């Protein structure tokens, strides 16, 4: 199904035009329209679809709208646009417009007017649907209009999105003012409305399989870590952590070799494309169209990699230490509260609104954590020691381990949000604008040209940009592994001579193979997590990772302490966490506009 975006300026009565033209001149609205409709990834271009009257309302010297593929719908198939071939096309229906191909791949399709085209698009069909309406709502003064947009919100199936989501969709290059603005003699507000059916996309089969692999990777890593440190008596949490995180460095070379062997991409082209994407992301003031046209931001990129390494290292070290002090089920349950921390931090970072149902979910999850931590600790009383496993295989300090995990969980939630804000490549924007867009205004936007280059990526050794799926996050994961190997190696002898962790190699091959299993499962989990963070965002990803609680509890029961793992409080606490996350998950997919989606 083709996804469409409507971009429009309208009064509170949905008035959009007077005598075939815009009845107002709002400069911020025009800059906003130009930025959103131009903004597309390297090698792609947006399409603006309009009726004949909207086309004719644009002054001739500004036709076609630059750096966008202009599609004009007219009943007359011979209607003459009087523009250069390839810059605009005439079609006789919306269906025909959506089937048009362009020499530059189309990124997003915007309906920009007029009223009848808005109405047709909003009705939708089996092969297309409007999932966003970006509106500049003109609230004062009262403007007399003779053309109106359909009152689509009254039909149901639409929900008002938050300012935070609008900011995320618009992306960098234009600062969206929040709330009602008073400029140019008008009061207006930038708004976004989302179709309820336009829930976050899971990335198809690849996304679902990746999610399953990530869950299994975490579960296997958790169980093997406890098995090695308790049953095999190899208690070297820092060294194991060091090996696992250094192993991240294998993922990018493997991905690069896979693409080289299975596609027409060359390694040179892939690396050049990554260089270009990173340069444009970290130095976005002027977009680059080819590698070498601007210097690669080495210092910024190095700082990003180091910050990410520390952001994941500190919580992970706490987790590795806690796994030997508390049960895997408790540690996993508490660790998964990072989704709530990610949500709370996201509210502040992205300007989301507090909502009662989500606050109830947070309180419920917190209560669940308390039940798991203190109820589980109380149930594991010394009197029960003789009825369970050997002392050497039982968690030694559950309360301390659980508290360490809680601190790690907060840090990990913070890391996920910061990754989304600073590290993930933008997925770009949706829509906004007006119906009868009289655009002598596009002239004044030359100095506000925020658009990205539309030069397409060719084969051979030319830069492949945007990079293939998951290649960029796998590069970051790999470099985090390299940074771990370089920066943290010095702590192994320090911990040894300080008597904190006396270094010793594994005493047998079974322990070596088990540690290798921890490393490989850790690579799967962390690589999958980085990809999912870019696809789904921190909140949805964290909510999904909650399922590890169930998987680890089941595996702990089957392969660990048996039914002794299950206590009334652990079951009640885990149930509370599951219910709370269920509330958030339902809310996200039923009312996706209120939350952060991938970007």
UniProtKB/TrEMBL annotation:
Superkingdom in the source lineage: Eukaryota
Membrane spanning stretches: 202-220, 240-259, 303-327, 333-352, 359-377, 397-415, 475-495, 507-525, 532-554, 566-586
Keyword annotations: Membrane, NADP, One-carbon metabolism, Oxidoreductase, Transmembrane, Transmembrane helix
Domain (DHFR): residue spans on this chain: 3-195
Gene Ontology terms for molecular function: dihydrofolate reductase activity
EC number in record: 1.5.1.3
Region ranges (Disordered): 435-461
GO aspect biological process, one term: tetrahydrofolate biosynthetic process
Matches recorded under InterPro entries: DHFR-like_dom_sf (IPR024072), DHFR_CS (IPR017925), DHFR_dom (IPR001796), EmrE-like (IPR037185), Solute_c_fam_35_mem_F3/F4 (IPR026505)
Protein name: dihydrofolate reductase
Protein species of origin: Leucocoprinus birnbaumii
């Amino acid at each position: 199904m083709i996804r469409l975006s409507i971009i429009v300026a309208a009064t509170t009565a949905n008035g959009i035009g007077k005598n075939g033209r815009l009845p107002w001149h709002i400069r911020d609205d025009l800059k906003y329209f130009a930025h959103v409709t131009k903004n597309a990834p390297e090698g792609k271009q947006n399409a603006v679809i309009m009726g004949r009257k909207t086309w004719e309302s644009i002054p001739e010297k500004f036709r076609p709208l630059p750096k966008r593929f202009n599609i004009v719908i007219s009943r007359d198939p011979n209607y003459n646009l009087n523009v250069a071939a390839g810059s605009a096309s005439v079609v006789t229906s919306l269906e025909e417009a959506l089937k048009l191909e362009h020499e530059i791949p189309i990124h997003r399709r915007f309906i920009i007017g007029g009223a009848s085209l808005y109405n047709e698009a909003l009705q939708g069909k089996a092969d297309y649907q409007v999932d966003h309406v970006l509106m500049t709502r003109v609230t004062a003064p009262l403007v007399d209009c003779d053309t109106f947009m359909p009152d689509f919100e009254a039909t149901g199936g639409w929900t008002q999105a938050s300012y935070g989501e609008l900011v995320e969709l618009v992306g960098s290059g234009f600062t969206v003012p929040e709330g009602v603005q008073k400029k140019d003699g008008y009061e207006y507000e930038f708004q976004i409305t989302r179709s309820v059916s336009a829930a976050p996309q899971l990335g198809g089969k690849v996304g679902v399989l990746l999610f399953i692999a990530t869950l299994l990777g975490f579960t296997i890593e958790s169980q093997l870590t406890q098995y090695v440190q308790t049953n095999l008596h190899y208690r070297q949490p820092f060294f194991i952590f060091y090996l696992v995180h250094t192993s991240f460095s294998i993922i990018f070379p493997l991905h690069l070799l896979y693409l080289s062997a299975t596609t027409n991409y060359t390694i040179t082209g892939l690396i050049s494309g990554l260089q270009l994407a990173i340069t444009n992301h970290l130095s976005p003031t002027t977009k680059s169209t080819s590698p070498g046209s601007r210097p690669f931001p080495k210092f910024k990129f190095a700082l990003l990699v180091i910050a990410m390494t520390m952001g994941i290292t500190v919580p992970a070290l706490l987790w590795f230490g806690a796994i030997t002090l508390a049960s895997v089920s408790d540690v996993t349950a508490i660790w998964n509260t990072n989704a709530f921390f990610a949500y709370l931090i996201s509210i502040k970072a992205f300007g989301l609104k507090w909502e009662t149902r989500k606050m109830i979910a947070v309180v419920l999850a917190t209560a669940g954590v308390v039940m798991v931590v203190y109820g589980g600790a109380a149930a594991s009383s010394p009197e029960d020691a003789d009825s369970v496993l050997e002392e050497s295989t039982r968690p030694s300090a559950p309360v301390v381990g659980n508290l360490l995990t809680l601190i790690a969980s907060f840090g990990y939630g913070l890391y996920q949000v910061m990754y989304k804000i600073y590290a993930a490549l933008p997925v770009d924007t949706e829509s906004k604008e007006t119906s009868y867009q009289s655009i002598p205004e596009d002239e004044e936007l030359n100095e506000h040209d925020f658009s990205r280059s539309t030069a397409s990526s060719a084969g051979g050794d030319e830069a492949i940009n945007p990079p293939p799926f998951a290649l960029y996050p796998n590069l970051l994961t790999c470099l985090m592994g390299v940074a771990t190997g370089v920066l943290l190696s010095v702590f192994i002898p320090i911990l040894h001579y300080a008597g904190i962790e006396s270094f010793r190699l594994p005493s047998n091959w079974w322990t070596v193979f088990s540690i290798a299993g921890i490393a490989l499962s850790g690579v799967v989990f962390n690589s999958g997590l980085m990809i999912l963070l870019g696809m789904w965002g921190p909140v949805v990803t964290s909510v999904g990772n909650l399922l590890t609680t169930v998987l680890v509890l089941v595996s702990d029961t089957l392969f660990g302490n048996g039914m002794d793992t299950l206590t009334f409080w652990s079951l009640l606490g885990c149930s509370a966490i599951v219910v709370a996350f269920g509330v958030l998950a339902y809310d996200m997919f039923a009312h996706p506009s209120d939350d952060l989606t991938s970007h």
